[in-house]
Amino acid sequence: MKSTMAVHLLLSYLFVLISCTAPERSENTAEDTVATATTVVTDLEEGPVDSKYPLHTLRLPEGFRISVYAEVDNARSMAMGMDGTLFVGNRRGDKVYALRDEDKDNFAEKKYIIAEGLIMPNGVAVKDGDLYVAELSRILKFSSIESRLADPPKAKVIYDQLPDKRHHGWKYIAFGPDGKLYVPVGAPCNICESEDKVFAAINRMNADGTDFEVYAEGVRNTVGFTWHPQTKELWFTDNGRDMMGDNFPPCELNRVPKKGMHFGYPYCHGKDIGDPEFGTKFPCTDFSPAVQPLGPHVAPLGLKFYTGSMFPEAYRDNVFIAEHGSWNRSKKIGYRVSMVGLKGNTPTGYETFISGWLNESKQEAWGRPVDVLIREDGSMLLSDDKAGLIYRISYTN
Ligand SMILES: [Ca+2]
User: Fold this and answer.
1) Less crowded by CB within 10 Å, the N or C end of the chain?
2) Domains of the chain
């Protein structure tokens, strides 16, 4: 099986070498474009590849099933095109991928590289048929992408004024119901105050890169946000600071009903935990508390409200959160998909939905959840940057 795939890959690359008379990575020809497009198409072998991975270690509630939807190196943030193409970014890698399941067997056998040689292209978003990619310090746009997967257009740089600090520099991006592109910039440190308000903030801009503004402050490092399906309010996860012991502070699930709110960092964590270094400057009552404190150091990333109809009714509008897993803790936690039940805006529970990537006794994990996406059929896609996979989670009675 492996050798067949190796042959497929080799043939794909040979095809590129032979057929690309145009340079694979040409020089920039205009100030506002960037040459990043290649034409690598990988046509993977048909059929499920589940047996290649230890999916049997994963635990889900009764009736749920997890399978492999796609194999993607360092799979990070995901965005779905109007025509069913899944776009996936990289953090440690330098590529953006497009995946298609043409034969509808819930395994994406077609894989295109839309761009490569990018700097931390973690964030992807789709609007009006165009793909937006967030690098470390700029936002790129690939126009009419779904009709040009095998021959992707050159990217246009729509914004290049983001800071180039690599600490917390990888970005999640998404378009809000207001049509604006939301672009966070993490704190350039573990814990610090910044002169420049663009740091530790969720910012937003028009789709053409104009009218950049700070939307929410006091956000240490959010790598996932979404909008409530009914209220249309922004909800985001935030990664709590390090080096405050195994059990503090909690990571956070936050709600942003309006512009101009401050979520506490670096002064206050969770709901009311003053920072040991900066906490004396302002009381926690000056800031918006977390809606739901999450586990300490669990590293919550992507999140989505469940808007589908495949899962049981009780899951509707609950929040699913990909917890990437801890590093700054003597015993690892996270490495799971958690769920926060809600009644209106009030949490009714914080529990595990999928676990088992972490072997507790060995303290080793074979996978790390990154981003969550709900498909039109009500199934869930989940990316994993350690295993290099996109999973599909489905439910049958
Ligand atoms: Ca397929």
Assistant:
1) C
2) 2-395 (2.120.10.30)
